[in-house]
Amino acid sequence: MISRRKRIRVLCVDDHAMMAEGLKARLALEPDIEFAGWVSTAEHLADAAGLHRADVVLLDVDLPGADVFSELDELTRRFPMIRTIVFSAHVRDHYLDEAVNRGAWGYIAKSDPPQSLIDAIRKVSRGEVAFGPRVFERCRPADRPASRDDVRPASRLDLLTPREIEVLRMIGKGMSRTEIAQATHRSPKTIDNHRAAIMEKLQIHDRVELARFAIREGLTEA
Question: Which of 55, 70, 183, 217 is the most buried (most CB within 10 A)?
Answer without folding.
Answer: 55
